[in-house]
Specification:
This protein is mainly α and about 120 residues long. It is built from 6 helices and no strands.
Length: about 120
């Protein structure tokens, strides 16, 4: 079942409040991840990004990297491990949005060398 346009637009509107470039990263990521995720997983993925963006003043930068690399990370992690990765990044954002952004940014190159327990 395809995601309704109203949901897509609402997520984009919430992200644009933080930074116009964040909404653009989201739109680009949607094209990559929507075809491979179930509707429920897609909604969770999008809402995680919104939550991350609103965590602190600069956490939108971590959310931007989250959206930018999600498609690549999904290619190497099964669904449960992907959720674990997302939660790990969100946990880092509680301490530092800069560290969370670096975590997301480095993930596509580093995750293939880690097992599921080492992601965090």
């Amino acid at each position: 079942m395809p995601i309704d346009q109203q949901f897509l637009d609402e997520i984009e509107r919430k992200l644009a409040v933080h930074a116009p470039s964040l909404a653009a990263e989201y739109r680009a990521a949607v094209l990559e991840v929507q075809p491979v995720l179930s509707e429920a997983d897609f909604r969770t993925w999008a809402e995680e990004g919104v939550g991350l963006a609103g965590h602190s003043l600069r956490s939108w930068e971590a959310a931007s990297d989250y959206f930018r690399v999600s498609g690549d990370v999904m290619k190497v992690l099964p669904s449960a491990a992907f959720r674990h990765w997302t939660h790990a990044g969100r946990g880092l954002a509680e301490y530092s949005s800069v560290i969370a952004a670096a975590f997301f940014k480095a993930s596509p190159k580093s995750i293939p060398f880690l097992d599921g327990n080492q992601i965090t």
